[in-house]
Amino acid sequence: MARRTGSLAAMNPNAAVWDGKPYHPISLDYKSRFGGKVVKVPVSIAESCPNRDGLKGMKTCIFCDEHGSFAYADSQKDDLKSQIELHRSKVTERFNAAKFLIYFQAYTTTFTALGRLKSGFDLALSYPDTVGLVVGTRPDCLSEAVIRTWKEYSDKTFVAVELGVQSFDDGQLEWMRRGHTGSQAIRGIERIAKETGVNATGRPNVDLGIHLMFGWPTENDKQIIETARLCNSLPISNVKLHNLHVLDKTPLAEMYRAGEFQPIELDLYAHRVALFLDHLDPRIAIHRLAALSNRWDELLAPDWVRHKMRSFQGMIDRINAAGAYQGRRFAAELPKVVDDVANGAGLIDRPDVKHGISI
Q: pLDDT digits over 89-132, tens only?
């Protein structure tokens, strides 16, 4: 395979495969699977989550806003058909795409009636340009019926699940009031992989990814490296990174105003992302490197979160300047992985990982 010339390609052996990026972008996996550009269309059908309802004494996560981290708050109360058509038109104009994944995003999608969930899936799939479903949920909200439903729908379309893990550290999880432990997250990941299984080609029936958040008060470099290594051992195919930032009308906003929390700055965050990428299996795809706010009226801090492209390029520049790229340290231990990536392998081709156990 031809490679680009220049210093970046010299540092990162996968630069050509990854369109010059220091990480494995999930857009390449979508293009390979669907034959072209695919864009997510965020929608909301859940009205709450276990935390907001106070189940087992839980409280709202400290970082979560009143919209349940939904991308289009203004239309959140619209019916699902209206949301799909409105949000699809927005992303079509922005990204010039013709194929879509309907992303059930807000709150905890599986914290709703199963019948309503299935009806939502069926409506989403009734649009001919819908090529799959993406479900956002949490690792402690996984009933047998929900997992069985994912498996059933995977027989007729692409199904992806994104679990809001945020951290595997119990101290950090308790501080953010998540209501689940790191062990529960691991068990949830392994359970989904085991119970949904693989198809005849060896691919997982359900594409499984996790969300991680960096910027906790007790966070250190060692934890970031250990998190990457743990991801390598789990049956996941992708990761989405978030930076902990302060939105108004959240418990974290109260802590910030009281001087009890200071958000992470761009330099340190980019350093942590570079560390994570360095130790992460290059076959695991990355959705994004950071969460950048599009509701400026709600954002309190840090200011760099307001500037999407400038901050993104700033992270890329810092990662490249450090000579970091996804799998740099991982590949030093397992050089075969670099060859796999160069040949187009993704996590679906990882025979070394089965249900969270390295073999």
A: 888 888 888 999 999 986 566 657 788 889 999 999 999 999 99
* Both structure tokens of 101: 């994944």
> pTM value?
0.86
Which H helix or E strand runs over 38?
strand 38-43
Separation between Cα atoms, residue 326 and residue 129, nearest integer Å: 32
Domains by residue range for the chain, with CATH: 1-35+222-233+240-359 (no CATH), 37-214 (3.80.30)
Q: How far is the first Cα of the chain from the last one, in angstroms, to the nearest whole number? A: 30
**Residue 209: strand pairing partners:** 162, 238
Tokens representing residue 301 in the block:
């801090």
Q: Report the candidate in 298, 237, 313, 239 with the shortest Cα–Cα distance to residue 69.
A: 298
pLDDT digits 0-9 by tens, 14-47:
888 999 999 999 999 999 999 999 999 989 876 6
Measured at the alpha carbon of residue 92, what is the angle toward residues 87 and 97, in degrees to the nearest 5?
130
From the number of C-beta atoms within 10 Å of its C-beta (0-12, 13-18, 19+), residue 38 rates as: buried
Per DSSP, helices labelled H in 36-113 are 80-95
User: d(Cα 206, Cα 33) in Å, to the nearest integer?
Assistant: 14
Plot region of 156 (φ>0 → left; ψ -120 to 50 → alpha; else → beta) = alpha
